[in-house]
Amino acid sequence: MKAHIGTHEHLTHRGNLSHTRYGWLRLTPAYSIHLVADLLHSGAASHRVVLDPFCGTGTTALVCAEQGVHCDTTDINPFLVWFSQVKTATYRASDIMSFSEAARSVYATIFELDAPQWTPAIHQIEKWWSVPKLAALSRMMQRIHELEAQTPERSVNLLKVAFCRVMIEHANVSFGHQSMSFKRASSTPMFDLLLRDEDWVAESWTRAVNTISVSALSAIMTEPRMLICDARRLTSMLSLEGYTQVITSPPYPNRMSYIRELRPYMYWLGYLSDAREAGEMDWQAIGGTWGIATSKVNKWTPELPIDIPLDSFPQLLDQISERSPLLARYVHKYFYDMVQHLSELFPLVQAGGSIHYIVGNSKFYDVVLPVERIFAAMFEVAGFEQSQITIIRKRTSKRELYEYVVSAKRPS
Ligand SMILES: C[S@@+](CC[C@H](N)C(=O)[O-])C[C@H]1O[C@@H](n2cnc3c(N)ncnc32)[C@H](O)[C@@H]1O
Questions:
Q1: How far is the CA of 197 from the centre of ligand 1 (A)?
Q2: Model confidence over 218-243: pLDDT tens digits?
Q3: For position 245, which CATH number holds?
Q4: Is residue 172 part of a domain?
Q5: 266 is a domain residue
Q6: Which of these, 55, 278, 321, 381, is most buried using a 10 Å CB contact count?
Q7: Domain limits at 127?
Q8: What pLDDT is stored for residue 342 in this prediction?
Q9: Quick check: is 265 in a domain?
Q10: Mutation test residue for ligand 1: of 54, 57, 258, 271, the one with most atoms within 8 Å of CB
Q11: 360: Cβ below 6 Å to ligand 1?
């Protein structure tokens, strides 16, 4: 069966880029709008209320917003909650006019070489941007801060999204692999070398502002609700039995750190101010192992007697532990956290409601972790029934790695 499964690019975030606001920022963890739309339509058509407890870039929320379906979304990362809110908001023509007017003022500052500037405290910032580009970006951000007092919040938010597009376009990083890495010097396009840095930044700014001005006017039928919330504490903020469907993609147990990936955005927009804070935030996230989070995972032991419902789980942990005790702890903690998340989720779902988790399996050394089977079993332990696993696509990274939808129902 696996032999017929292709990588299906349209079922990844790449398939989203040309749709309305989906391509505003290219943040790696997003999943496919087609998949979300299909799952949405698999549920009952009336009185739908959707929850996405790991909203990331707000894909579920935007699909729901465009289709007039009520949706609540939560994430532990405040930058992603802000961005999802901005991406799913309604913008009137007057918001776009004040955005365009403010954008002209930001444009002017690119060439005002002695204008005040604001530079974030990113470690080794000189590796990220050339000196003139960094100075131009710093002047732009300073101007955005100055404009905040006199510009409607929705328009300022759009300025910040446009800024993020330009900032990342000029960063010396590439996205070829699963995570972001610094580019080699030779990979700078020839066109880039022929332009003055300020001209190049200005051209990107104009392009970003034009794209956003058009796509921000796309129709939003129902604005979703976004909350900063730890998925292990959902009942403290959300209503019991409030949701007919859960459509989400949790972090995968693959050591990807969202804070590491998102740090340029988070530093520039003021969501991070130093490396310690970054490591602390990663530690709070499920599956985080970046910076000081790594040493915390290394010392972690379970506080509660939680069993992971797969008979071979202890053996799999032992096999991983032979090569890396740290990774074994990491895997154990990931599922321990997920069991807690699912026990918080269960009371929020209406009787007969369905849950859909898009997950990827992982491989540590030669040990393949059947993540999809563990999720299906964890659903049953939490009280859901009829759990079902469907393969969506093969992932490009390593052999044996697939993406799945794992679904289940709350008993009627
Ligand atoms: C795979 S991404 C979600 C991607 C999303 N479906 C999209 O299309 O952009 C997983 C998300 O889980 C969030 N997350 C990690 N730990 C969390 C926790 N304890 N509570 C809530 N969200 C968490 C991360 O911040 C990240 O945004």
A1: 35
A2: 999 999 999 999 999 999 999 999 99
A3: 3.40.50.150
A4: yes
A5: no
A6: 55
A7: 93-215
A8: 98
A9: no
A10: 54
A11: no
